[in-house]
Write a structure and sequence with these properties.
Length: 73
Amino acid sequence: MRKVRNLLVSLTLASGVLLAIGSAPAQADSIRYAYYFQADCYNGGNLGIQWGWWTSFRCEWGTGGGNFWFLWA
């Protein structure tokens, strides 16, 4: 029984790797951080681009409630 389970786990992992190779990564925007100041939001977004964490970003005031600037990337 243990060999069968190990075989199933191996096959599952191998199929996941093959699917990951053939598909493009998802680029859905999500909130990355919340800032008190607009300038900090833009600085954080630009640093994320420089460091290769994302390719674009936007800063929005009060998205999701609160008095913050939210960095979406």
